[in-house]
Write a structure and sequence with these properties.
- There is one protein chain.
- This protein is mainly alpha-helical.
- It has 3 domains: about 180 residues, MFS general substrate transporter like domains (Growth Hormone, Chain: A), CATH 1.20.1250.20; about 55 residues, no CATH class; about 220 residues, Up-down Bundle (Growth Hormone, Chain: A), CATH 1.20.1250.
- About 80% of the residues lie in helices and about 0% in strands.
- It has 18 helices and no strands.
- α1 packs antiparallel against α8 and α9 runs antiparallel to α10.
- The protein is globular and about 60 Å long.
- The chain starts with a helix and ends with a helix.
Protein backbone atom coordinates (compact mmCIF):
# COMPACT_ATOMS: atom_id res chain seq x y z
CA UNK A 1 0.00 0.00 0.00
CA UNK A 2 2.84 2.38 0.82
CA UNK A 3 4.46 1.61 -2.54
CA UNK A 4 1.14 2.17 -4.34
CA UNK A 5 0.67 5.54 -2.64
CA UNK A 6 4.22 6.68 -3.51
CA UNK A 7 3.81 5.50 -7.11
CA UNK A 8 0.49 7.37 -7.34
CA UNK A 9 2.23 10.60 -6.38
CA UNK A 10 5.11 10.25 -8.82
CA UNK A 11 2.67 9.29 -11.57
CA UNK A 12 0.79 12.60 -11.44
CA UNK A 13 3.99 14.65 -11.05
CA UNK A 14 5.72 12.90 -13.98
CA UNK A 15 2.54 12.99 -16.05
CA UNK A 16 2.52 16.78 -15.76
CA UNK A 17 5.92 16.90 -17.51
CA UNK A 18 4.37 15.57 -20.75
CA UNK A 19 0.61 15.98 -20.58
CA UNK A 20 0.70 19.78 -20.82
CA UNK A 21 2.65 19.78 -24.10
CA UNK A 22 -0.34 18.30 -25.94
CA UNK A 23 -2.57 21.12 -24.67
CA UNK A 24 -0.27 24.02 -25.67
CA UNK A 25 -2.06 24.92 -28.92
CA UNK A 26 -5.44 24.89 -27.13
CA UNK A 27 -4.04 27.03 -24.31
CA UNK A 28 -2.66 29.45 -26.88
CA UNK A 29 -6.03 29.86 -28.62
CA UNK A 30 -8.11 30.08 -25.44
CA UNK A 31 -5.86 32.45 -23.47
CA UNK A 32 -4.33 34.26 -26.47
CA UNK A 33 -0.87 33.24 -25.23
CA UNK A 34 2.35 34.17 -26.97
CA UNK A 35 5.00 31.57 -27.78
CA UNK A 36 7.11 32.77 -24.83
CA UNK A 37 4.12 32.31 -22.51
CA UNK A 38 3.71 28.77 -23.85
CA UNK A 39 7.37 28.17 -23.03
CA UNK A 40 6.88 29.51 -19.51
CA UNK A 41 3.82 27.30 -19.03
CA UNK A 42 6.24 24.36 -19.25
CA UNK A 43 9.37 25.91 -17.78
CA UNK A 44 7.80 27.63 -14.75
CA UNK A 45 6.98 24.12 -13.55
CA UNK A 46 10.28 22.42 -14.37
CA UNK A 47 12.52 25.30 -13.19
CA UNK A 48 10.82 25.50 -9.80
CA UNK A 49 10.77 21.71 -9.50
CA UNK A 50 14.49 21.49 -10.28
CA UNK A 51 15.37 24.32 -7.90
CA UNK A 52 13.57 22.85 -4.88
CA UNK A 53 14.15 19.12 -5.33
CA UNK A 54 17.20 18.71 -3.10
CA UNK A 55 16.00 21.15 -0.41
CA UNK A 56 12.62 19.45 -0.11
CA UNK A 57 14.34 16.15 0.60
CA UNK A 58 16.48 17.76 3.32
CA UNK A 59 13.46 19.42 4.94
CA UNK A 60 11.54 16.15 4.94
CA UNK A 61 14.45 14.34 6.63
CA UNK A 62 14.34 16.93 9.42
CA UNK A 63 10.61 17.70 9.82
CA UNK A 64 9.12 14.32 8.92
CA UNK A 65 8.78 12.62 5.55
CA UNK A 66 5.08 11.77 5.77
CA UNK A 67 4.20 15.27 6.94
CA UNK A 68 6.04 16.91 4.03
CA UNK A 69 4.63 14.31 1.63
CA UNK A 70 1.05 15.20 2.62
CA UNK A 71 1.84 18.92 2.32
CA UNK A 72 3.26 18.32 -1.15
CA UNK A 73 0.15 16.45 -2.25
CA UNK A 74 -2.05 19.26 -0.92
CA UNK A 75 -0.07 22.03 -2.65
CA UNK A 76 0.09 20.07 -5.91
CA UNK A 77 -3.68 19.47 -5.84
CA UNK A 78 -4.46 23.12 -5.01
CA UNK A 79 -2.07 24.31 -7.72
CA UNK A 80 -3.71 21.98 -10.24
CA UNK A 81 -7.18 23.28 -9.36
CA UNK A 82 -6.01 26.90 -9.71
CA UNK A 83 -4.38 26.09 -13.08
CA UNK A 84 -7.73 24.78 -14.32
CA UNK A 85 -9.38 28.08 -13.32
CA UNK A 86 -6.68 30.40 -14.71
CA UNK A 87 -8.24 33.30 -16.68
CA UNK A 88 -4.98 34.42 -18.32
CA UNK A 89 -1.68 32.90 -19.38
CA UNK A 90 0.18 34.89 -16.71
CA UNK A 91 -2.04 33.48 -13.94
CA UNK A 92 -1.59 29.98 -15.37
CA UNK A 93 2.20 30.35 -15.21
CA UNK A 94 2.00 31.46 -11.56
CA UNK A 95 -0.22 28.51 -10.66
CA UNK A 96 2.19 26.15 -12.40
CA UNK A 97 4.89 27.40 -10.02
CA UNK A 98 2.68 26.54 -7.03
CA UNK A 99 2.15 23.09 -8.53
CA UNK A 100 5.91 22.64 -8.74
CA UNK A 101 6.45 23.61 -5.09
CA UNK A 102 4.15 20.75 -4.14
CA UNK A 103 5.68 18.43 -6.72
CA UNK A 104 9.19 19.00 -5.35
CA UNK A 105 8.01 17.54 -2.03
CA UNK A 106 6.79 14.33 -3.66
CA UNK A 107 9.59 12.85 -5.78
CA UNK A 108 12.55 12.78 -3.33
CA UNK A 109 10.35 12.29 -0.26
CA UNK A 110 8.49 9.35 -1.78
CA UNK A 111 11.80 7.69 -2.60
CA UNK A 112 12.93 8.21 1.03
CA UNK A 113 9.68 6.64 2.25
CA UNK A 114 10.21 3.63 -0.02
CA UNK A 115 13.79 3.17 1.19
CA UNK A 116 12.65 3.43 4.81
CA UNK A 117 9.69 1.01 4.33
CA UNK A 118 11.47 -1.80 2.49
CA UNK A 119 14.28 -3.12 4.70
CA UNK A 120 15.07 -6.19 2.62
CA UNK A 121 17.49 -5.25 -0.22
CA UNK A 122 15.75 -7.54 -2.70
CA UNK A 123 12.29 -6.14 -1.93
CA UNK A 124 13.68 -2.62 -2.01
CA UNK A 125 15.18 -3.21 -5.45
CA UNK A 126 11.84 -4.56 -6.70
CA UNK A 127 10.02 -1.55 -5.22
CA UNK A 128 12.41 0.91 -6.86
CA UNK A 129 12.01 -1.01 -10.13
CA UNK A 130 8.25 -0.59 -9.90
CA UNK A 131 8.78 3.11 -9.18
CA UNK A 132 10.87 3.45 -12.35
CA UNK A 133 8.24 1.59 -14.39
CA UNK A 134 5.57 4.04 -13.22
CA UNK A 135 7.72 6.96 -14.36
CA UNK A 136 8.03 5.34 -17.79
CA UNK A 137 4.31 4.62 -17.88
CA UNK A 138 3.50 8.28 -17.15
CA UNK A 139 5.71 9.30 -20.08
CA UNK A 140 3.88 6.89 -22.36
CA UNK A 141 0.37 7.83 -21.22
CA UNK A 142 0.91 11.60 -20.99
CA UNK A 143 0.31 12.42 -24.68
CA UNK A 144 -2.67 10.05 -24.93
CA UNK A 145 -4.35 11.12 -21.70
CA UNK A 146 -3.74 14.78 -22.48
CA UNK A 147 -5.00 14.47 -26.04
CA UNK A 148 -8.12 12.57 -24.98
CA UNK A 149 -8.98 15.07 -22.23
CA UNK A 150 -8.45 18.11 -24.44
CA UNK A 151 -10.46 16.56 -27.29
CA UNK A 152 -13.34 15.39 -25.12
CA UNK A 153 -13.55 18.29 -22.67
CA UNK A 154 -11.11 21.19 -22.55
CA UNK A 155 -7.43 21.89 -21.88
CA UNK A 156 -8.40 22.66 -18.28
CA UNK A 157 -9.30 18.99 -17.81
CA UNK A 158 -5.61 18.02 -17.84
CA UNK A 159 -5.37 19.75 -14.46
CA UNK A 160 -8.70 18.54 -13.08
CA UNK A 161 -7.51 14.94 -13.17
CA UNK A 162 -4.81 15.68 -10.58
CA UNK A 163 -7.21 16.92 -7.90
CA UNK A 164 -9.15 13.72 -7.00
CA UNK A 165 -5.96 11.64 -7.28
CA UNK A 166 -4.15 14.04 -4.94
CA UNK A 167 -6.98 14.10 -2.39
CA UNK A 168 -7.26 10.29 -2.46
CA UNK A 169 -3.49 9.98 -1.93
CA UNK A 170 -3.63 12.36 1.06
CA UNK A 171 -6.30 10.21 2.73
CA UNK A 172 -4.34 7.00 2.09
CA UNK A 173 -1.09 8.59 3.31
CA UNK A 174 -2.71 9.67 6.57
CA UNK A 175 -3.93 6.12 7.17
CA UNK A 176 -1.15 3.85 5.90
CA UNK A 177 2.22 5.68 5.69
CA UNK A 178 4.17 5.77 8.98
CA UNK A 179 6.14 8.88 9.92
CA UNK A 180 9.92 8.75 9.67
CA UNK A 181 12.86 11.11 10.01
CA UNK A 182 16.59 10.90 9.36
CA UNK A 183 18.59 10.11 12.53
CA UNK A 184 21.05 12.88 11.67
CA UNK A 185 19.33 15.24 9.22
CA UNK A 186 21.37 17.74 7.26
CA UNK A 187 20.81 21.44 7.83
CA UNK A 188 18.97 23.16 5.00
CA UNK A 189 21.28 25.40 3.00
CA UNK A 190 18.80 28.24 2.39
CA UNK A 191 21.27 30.60 0.70
CA UNK A 192 22.51 27.86 -1.61
CA UNK A 193 18.90 26.98 -2.40
CA UNK A 194 18.06 30.59 -3.27
CA UNK A 195 21.14 30.93 -5.50
CA UNK A 196 20.20 27.75 -7.41
CA UNK A 197 16.72 29.12 -8.19
CA UNK A 198 18.07 32.56 -9.17
CA UNK A 199 20.81 31.11 -11.40
CA UNK A 200 18.50 28.71 -13.21
CA UNK A 201 15.45 31.01 -13.39
CA UNK A 202 17.35 33.99 -14.81
CA UNK A 203 19.16 31.76 -17.32
CA UNK A 204 15.86 30.42 -18.66
CA UNK A 205 14.42 33.97 -18.66
CA UNK A 206 17.38 35.25 -20.69
CA UNK A 207 16.90 32.48 -23.26
CA UNK A 208 13.12 32.79 -23.59
CA UNK A 209 12.62 36.55 -23.35
CA UNK A 210 15.99 37.53 -24.78
CA UNK A 211 15.22 35.76 -28.06
CA UNK A 212 12.69 38.47 -28.84
CA UNK A 213 14.91 41.37 -27.72
CA UNK A 214 17.50 43.27 -29.81
CA UNK A 215 21.05 41.98 -29.51
CA UNK A 216 22.80 43.52 -26.49
CA UNK A 217 19.61 44.89 -24.93
CA UNK A 218 19.17 45.06 -21.15
CA UNK A 219 16.32 42.55 -21.45
CA UNK A 220 18.88 39.98 -22.57
CA UNK A 221 22.11 40.97 -20.82
CA UNK A 222 20.74 41.78 -17.34
CA UNK A 223 19.26 38.32 -16.58
CA UNK A 224 22.26 36.62 -18.20
CA UNK A 225 24.66 38.56 -15.95
CA UNK A 226 22.52 37.87 -12.88
CA UNK A 227 22.53 34.16 -13.70
CA UNK A 228 26.31 34.15 -14.12
CA UNK A 229 26.83 36.06 -10.86
CA UNK A 230 24.47 33.73 -8.98
CA UNK A 231 26.32 30.69 -10.33
CA UNK A 232 29.74 31.96 -9.18
CA UNK A 233 28.28 32.99 -5.81
CA UNK A 234 26.80 29.49 -5.46
CA UNK A 235 30.15 27.80 -6.11
CA UNK A 236 31.91 30.13 -3.65
CA UNK A 237 29.25 29.63 -0.97
CA UNK A 238 29.07 25.84 -1.34
CA UNK A 239 32.84 25.46 -1.03
CA UNK A 240 32.78 27.24 2.34
CA UNK A 241 29.56 25.80 3.80
CA UNK A 242 29.84 23.02 6.40
CA UNK A 243 26.79 21.14 5.02
CA UNK A 244 26.42 22.41 1.44
CA UNK A 245 23.35 21.83 -0.68
CA UNK A 246 25.75 20.36 -3.25
CA UNK A 247 29.41 19.69 -2.53
CA UNK A 248 31.47 21.07 -5.46
CA UNK A 249 34.08 18.38 -4.78
CA UNK A 250 31.68 15.82 -6.27
CA UNK A 251 32.33 17.34 -9.67
CA UNK A 252 35.93 16.21 -9.53
CA UNK A 253 34.50 12.80 -10.38
CA UNK A 254 34.30 12.45 -14.16
CA UNK A 255 31.44 9.88 -13.99
CA UNK A 256 29.45 12.18 -11.71
CA UNK A 257 30.01 15.31 -13.84
CA UNK A 258 29.45 13.30 -17.01
CA UNK A 259 26.16 11.89 -15.72
CA UNK A 260 24.92 15.38 -14.82
CA UNK A 261 25.79 16.71 -18.29
CA UNK A 262 24.33 13.66 -20.03
CA UNK A 263 21.09 14.12 -18.08
CA UNK A 264 20.92 17.78 -19.12
CA UNK A 265 21.60 16.93 -22.78
CA UNK A 266 19.23 13.95 -23.01
CA UNK A 267 16.36 15.82 -21.37
CA UNK A 268 17.09 18.95 -23.39
CA UNK A 269 16.49 16.73 -26.41
CA UNK A 270 13.28 15.34 -24.89
CA UNK A 271 11.95 18.77 -23.88
CA UNK A 272 12.71 20.21 -27.32
CA UNK A 273 11.22 17.17 -29.04
CA UNK A 274 7.89 17.39 -27.18
CA UNK A 275 7.65 21.18 -27.62
CA UNK A 276 8.31 21.11 -31.37
CA UNK A 277 6.32 17.97 -32.13
CA UNK A 278 3.02 18.93 -30.52
CA UNK A 279 3.01 22.43 -32.02
CA UNK A 280 3.94 21.02 -35.44
CA UNK A 281 1.37 18.22 -35.44
CA UNK A 282 -1.50 20.46 -34.35
CA UNK A 283 -0.31 23.39 -36.46
CA UNK A 284 1.21 22.42 -39.80
CA UNK A 285 -0.60 19.07 -39.97
CA UNK A 286 -3.85 20.33 -38.39
CA UNK A 287 -4.29 17.26 -36.17
CA UNK A 288 -6.52 17.12 -33.11
CA UNK A 289 -4.91 16.86 -29.65
CA UNK A 290 -5.83 13.16 -29.48
CA UNK A 291 -4.37 12.47 -32.93
CA UNK A 292 -1.23 14.33 -31.89
CA UNK A 293 -0.95 12.14 -28.79
CA UNK A 294 -1.36 9.00 -30.90
CA UNK A 295 1.45 10.14 -33.21
CA UNK A 296 3.86 10.49 -30.28
CA UNK A 297 2.74 7.27 -28.58
CA UNK A 298 5.26 5.08 -30.49
CA UNK A 299 8.11 7.25 -29.17
CA UNK A 300 6.89 6.92 -25.58
CA UNK A 301 6.20 3.18 -25.84
CA UNK A 302 9.62 2.51 -27.37
CA UNK A 303 11.25 4.51 -24.56
CA UNK A 304 9.25 2.50 -22.03
CA UNK A 305 10.33 -0.82 -23.58
CA UNK A 306 13.98 0.18 -24.06
CA UNK A 307 14.48 1.34 -20.46
CA UNK A 308 14.47 -2.10 -18.76
CA UNK A 309 16.61 -3.52 -21.59
CA UNK A 310 19.10 -0.74 -20.95
CA UNK A 311 19.02 -1.46 -17.22
CA UNK A 312 19.94 -5.10 -17.77
CA UNK A 313 22.67 -4.07 -20.22
CA UNK A 314 24.12 -1.69 -17.63
CA UNK A 315 24.16 -4.51 -15.06
CA UNK A 316 26.09 -6.81 -17.42
CA UNK A 317 28.33 -4.50 -19.47
CA UNK A 318 28.37 -1.19 -17.61
CA UNK A 319 26.93 2.16 -18.67
CA UNK A 320 28.98 2.74 -21.84
CA UNK A 321 27.01 0.58 -24.36
CA UNK A 322 23.66 2.06 -23.28
CA UNK A 323 24.93 5.65 -23.34
CA UNK A 324 26.61 5.32 -26.74
CA UNK A 325 23.69 3.48 -28.37
CA UNK A 326 21.16 5.85 -26.82
CA UNK A 327 23.03 9.01 -27.80
CA UNK A 328 23.47 7.74 -31.36
CA UNK A 329 19.74 6.99 -31.63
CA UNK A 330 18.83 10.44 -30.26
CA UNK A 331 21.07 12.02 -32.90
CA UNK A 332 19.76 9.81 -35.73
CA UNK A 333 16.10 10.37 -34.85
CA UNK A 334 16.66 14.13 -34.66
CA UNK A 335 18.69 14.45 -37.85
CA UNK A 336 15.91 12.63 -39.75
CA UNK A 337 13.63 15.57 -38.85
CA UNK A 338 15.96 18.40 -39.88
CA UNK A 339 14.08 18.61 -43.20
CA UNK A 340 10.64 18.53 -41.57
CA UNK A 341 7.76 19.85 -43.69
CA UNK A 342 3.98 19.92 -43.47
CA UNK A 343 3.90 17.17 -46.11
CA UNK A 344 6.50 14.85 -44.54
CA UNK A 345 5.11 11.29 -44.88
CA UNK A 346 3.61 9.87 -41.72
CA UNK A 347 5.78 6.75 -42.03
CA UNK A 348 8.94 8.88 -41.97
CA UNK A 349 7.71 10.76 -38.92
CA UNK A 350 6.87 7.60 -37.01
CA UNK A 351 10.21 5.98 -37.86
CA UNK A 352 12.08 9.04 -36.56
CA UNK A 353 9.92 9.08 -33.44
CA UNK A 354 10.59 5.38 -32.82
CA UNK A 355 14.35 5.83 -33.14
CA UNK A 356 14.30 8.90 -30.89
CA UNK A 357 12.23 7.04 -28.27
CA UNK A 358 14.63 4.10 -28.33
CA UNK A 359 17.55 6.46 -27.77
CA UNK A 360 15.90 8.21 -24.86
CA UNK A 361 14.91 4.90 -23.27
CA UNK A 362 18.49 3.64 -23.51
CA UNK A 363 20.09 6.80 -22.07
CA UNK A 364 17.87 7.44 -19.06
CA UNK A 365 18.59 4.35 -16.85
CA UNK A 366 22.41 4.57 -16.77
CA UNK A 367 22.38 8.26 -15.78
CA UNK A 368 21.79 7.60 -12.07
CA UNK A 369 24.03 4.53 -12.12
CA UNK A 370 26.88 6.58 -13.59
CA UNK A 371 26.26 9.46 -11.15
CA UNK A 372 26.62 7.28 -8.04
CA UNK A 373 29.55 5.29 -9.47
CA UNK A 374 32.41 5.54 -6.99
CA UNK A 375 30.52 7.84 -4.61
CA UNK A 376 30.54 7.00 -0.87
CA UNK A 377 27.40 5.11 0.18
CA UNK A 378 26.16 7.96 2.39
CA UNK A 379 26.40 10.37 -0.55
CA UNK A 380 24.57 8.17 -3.08
CA UNK A 381 21.24 9.83 -2.34
CA UNK A 382 22.63 13.30 -3.01
CA UNK A 383 24.25 12.08 -6.23
CA UNK A 384 20.94 10.59 -7.39
CA UNK A 385 19.13 13.83 -6.49
CA UNK A 386 21.61 15.82 -8.59
CA UNK A 387 20.91 13.49 -11.52
CA UNK A 388 17.16 14.10 -11.09
CA UNK A 389 17.71 17.84 -10.89
CA UNK A 390 19.85 17.73 -14.04
CA UNK A 391 17.01 15.98 -15.87
CA UNK A 392 14.62 18.80 -14.97
CA UNK A 393 17.16 21.45 -15.94
CA UNK A 394 17.43 19.74 -19.32
CA UNK A 395 13.65 19.79 -19.82
CA UNK A 396 13.61 23.50 -19.01
CA UNK A 397 16.46 24.30 -21.37
CA UNK A 398 15.01 22.17 -24.18
CA UNK A 399 11.77 24.16 -24.22
CA UNK A 400 13.55 27.50 -23.72
CA UNK A 401 16.28 27.07 -26.34
CA UNK A 402 14.17 25.42 -29.03
CA UNK A 403 11.43 28.03 -28.57
CA UNK A 404 14.01 30.80 -28.71
CA UNK A 405 15.30 29.43 -32.02
CA UNK A 406 11.81 29.16 -33.51
CA UNK A 407 10.52 32.60 -32.50
CA UNK A 408 12.83 34.67 -34.75
CA UNK A 409 12.32 32.18 -37.59
CA UNK A 410 8.57 32.72 -37.62
CA UNK A 411 8.81 36.40 -36.85
CA UNK A 412 6.99 36.10 -33.53
CA UNK A 413 3.92 34.66 -35.19
CA UNK A 414 1.58 32.27 -33.43
CA UNK A 415 3.32 29.05 -32.59
CA UNK A 416 0.65 26.92 -34.19
CA UNK A 417 0.53 28.73 -37.52
CA UNK A 418 1.55 26.78 -40.64
CA UNK A 419 5.24 27.31 -41.27
CA UNK A 420 6.38 26.16 -37.83
CA UNK A 421 7.90 23.04 -39.43
CA UNK A 422 10.44 25.10 -41.36
CA UNK A 423 11.14 27.27 -38.32
CA UNK A 424 11.95 24.17 -36.29
CA UNK A 425 14.83 22.99 -38.51
CA UNK A 426 17.59 24.66 -36.44
CA UNK A 427 16.00 23.15 -33.34
CA UNK A 428 16.31 19.64 -34.75
CA UNK A 429 19.97 20.28 -35.56
CA UNK A 430 20.45 21.36 -31.94
CA UNK A 431 18.88 18.11 -30.72
CA UNK A 432 21.14 16.18 -33.10
CA UNK A 433 24.11 17.86 -31.44
CA UNK A 434 22.76 16.86 -28.02
CA UNK A 435 22.71 13.21 -29.11
CA UNK A 436 26.28 13.40 -30.43
CA UNK A 437 27.44 15.02 -27.18
CA UNK A 438 25.82 12.19 -25.19
CA UNK A 439 27.87 9.68 -27.22
CA UNK A 440 31.11 11.60 -26.54
CA UNK A 441 30.41 11.96 -22.82
CA UNK A 442 29.33 8.33 -22.58
CA UNK A 443 32.72 7.29 -23.93
CA UNK A 444 34.78 9.68 -21.78
CA UNK A 445 32.92 9.21 -18.46
CA UNK A 446 33.29 5.41 -18.50
CA UNK A 447 37.06 5.15 -19.08
CA UNK A 448 39.58 3.87 -16.54
CA UNK A 449 40.73 7.48 -16.08
CA UNK A 450 37.16 8.48 -15.21
CA UNK A 451 36.90 5.69 -12.64
CA UNK A 452 40.13 6.89 -11.01
CA UNK A 453 38.72 10.41 -10.67
CA UNK A 454 35.58 8.94 -9.04
CA UNK A 455 37.69 7.06 -6.48
CA UNK A 456 39.75 10.18 -5.77
CA UNK A 457 36.62 12.31 -5.29
CA UNK A 458 35.12 9.69 -2.98
CA UNK A 459 38.32 9.61 -0.91
CA UNK A 460 38.27 13.39 -0.51
CA UNK A 461 34.60 13.29 0.51
CA UNK A 462 35.22 10.57 3.12
CA UNK A 463 38.24 12.43 4.51
CA UNK A 464 36.14 15.59 4.87
Amino acid sequence: MVLAICCMSIFIVSLDNTIVNVALPSIRRDLDASISQLQWTIDAYTVMLAGLLIASGSIADRVGRTKIFRLGLALFSIGSLLCSLAPTATVLIGCRMLQAVGGSMLNPVAMSIIRNTFDDPRERAQAIGMWGAVVGLSLALGPIVGGALVAALDWRAIFWVNVPVGVFAIVLTQRFVPESRAPRPRRVDWLGQALVIVALGTLVYAIIEGSQAPSGSVRLTAPALISLAAFFALVRHERRHDEPLLDPRFFRSAPFSGAALIAVLAFTALGGFLFITNLYLQGDRDLTPLQSGLYTLPMAVTAFVAAPLSGRLVGRRGARPSLVAGGAALALGSVMLTGLAATTPAASLLLAYLIFGFGFGMVNPPITNTAVSGMPGEQAGVAAAVASTSRLIGLSLGVAVVGAIAVPAIGGAAAVDPGFAHASHPGWWLLTGCGCAVVALGLVSTTSWARRTARAAAAVGEAA
